[in-house]
C-alpha cells in the first residue's frame, strides 16, 4: 500500500527509496541505504555514515530532490538501527530537514517507539498515523474491486463465504488477499462453481498450518 502511494510522487521532486529488509544488521542497513542512494558502500560504518549524508545533501541542495526513505515492516527493525536514525538524519544540528523517513509497520512499532530508550527518536517524529482495519462493508468493496481488477464480473464468493473471510481477516487487507487466494485454490480443487463458507474454513485451516 505505502509503496503504491510512493509511486505517485513526482520523481523530479522526490527520490523514493523503499526497503522491506527490516531484519538487517546495522552495517547491512548502512550499506544497503548507501547503495540505494547510488553510492558505493564502504565496509566501515563511519564511512557509510558520511557517504549517506553527502548523498542526501547532494540530492537536496544540487538536484532539489527530497529523498523519501520508506522502511517497511519497521516493527522488526533492531533497536540499534532505530538509535542510529536520529543521528544519521541529523543535518546542521537538526536545523535542516534534508530527507523524509517513513517507518511503516504493525502496531508493535508504536510500542517499541514508546520505550524510554527511543524517546529522542520519537520526539523527532512529525506525524504518527494509525491505520485501522477495514470495516466489513469496506472489506466487501475491497474484494469486489480486486475481482473487477481481474476482469471478473460474475459472482465468485457466496455471501456467507465472504462473511467468513472478513471475520477471519479482521479488517487486514493482506489477510483478506491471502484467504481469498487460498479459498480460490480450495474451490478449484473441489470443482466448485462458487466459493462456499466450507471452502473458506478449509482455506483458513490450511493458512494457519502453513
Plain-language structure description:
By secondary structure, the protein is mostly helical. 53% of the residues lie in helices and 8% in strands. The protein has helices at 2-7, 26-36, 45-61, 79-88, 108-113, 119-123, 136-149, 159-169, 173-190, 197-209, and strands at residues 14-19, 66-71, 100-103. The chain has a three-stranded parallel sheet. The chain is elongated. It starts with a helix and ends with a helix. The mean pLDDT is 91.
Summarize, please:
This protein is mainly α and 210 residues long. It has ten helices and three strands. The protein has helices spanning 2-7, 26-36, 45-61, 79-88, 108-113, 119-123, 136-149, 159-169, 173-190, 197-209, and strands spanning 14-19, 66-71, 100-103.
Topology:
Elements: H1 2-7, E1 14-19, H2 26-36, H3 45-61, E2 66-71, H4 79-88, E3 100-103, H5 108-113, H6 119-123, H7 136-149, H8 159-169, H9 173-190, H10 197-209
Parallel strand pairs: 1-2, 2-3
Q: What fraction of residues sit in β-strands? A: 5-15%
Radius of gyration: 22 Å
- Count of DSSP strands: 3
String of helices and strands: HEHHEHEHHHHHH
Characterize the overall form.
elongated
Features:
mainly alpha; 10 helices; 210 residues; single chain; 8% strand; three-stranded parallel beta sheet
Amino acid at each position: 500500500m505505502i509503496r503504491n502511494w510512493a509511486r505517485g510522487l513526482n520523481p523530479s521532486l522526490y527520490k523514493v527509496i523503499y526497503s522491506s529488509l527490516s531484519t538487517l544488521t546495522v552495517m547491512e542497513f548502512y550499506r544497503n541505504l548507501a547503495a540505494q542512494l547510488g553510492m558505493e558502500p564502504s565496509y566501515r560504518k563511519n564511512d557509510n555514515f558520511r557517504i549517506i549524508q553527502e548523498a542526501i545533501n547532494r540530492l537536496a541542495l544540487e538536484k532539489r530532490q527530497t529523498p523519501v526513505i520508506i522502511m517497511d515492516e519497521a516493527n522488526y527493525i533492531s533497536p540499534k538501527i532505530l538509535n542510529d536514525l536520529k543521528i544519521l538524519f541529523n543535518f546542521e544540528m537538526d536545523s535542516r530537514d534534508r530527507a523524509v523517513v517513513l517507518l511503516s509497520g504493525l502496531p508493535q512499532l508504536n510500542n517499541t517507539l514508546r520505550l524510554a530508550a527511543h524517546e529522542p527518536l520519537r520526539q523527532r517524529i512529525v506525524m504518527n498515523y494509525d491505520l485501522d482495519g477495514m470495516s466489513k462493508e469496506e472489506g466487501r468493496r475491497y474484494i469486489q474491486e480486486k475481482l473487477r481488477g481481474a476482469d471478473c464480473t460474475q459472482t465468485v464468493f457466496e455471501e456467507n463465504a465472504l462473511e467468513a473471510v472478513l471475520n477471519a481477516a479482521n479488517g487486514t487487507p493482506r489477510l483478506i488477499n491471502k484467504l481469498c487466494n487460498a479459498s480460490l485454490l480450495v474451490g478449484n480443487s473441489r470443482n466448485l462453481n462458487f466459493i462456499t463458507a466450507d471452502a473458506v474454513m478449509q482455506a483458513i485451516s490450511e493458512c494457519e498450518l502453513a
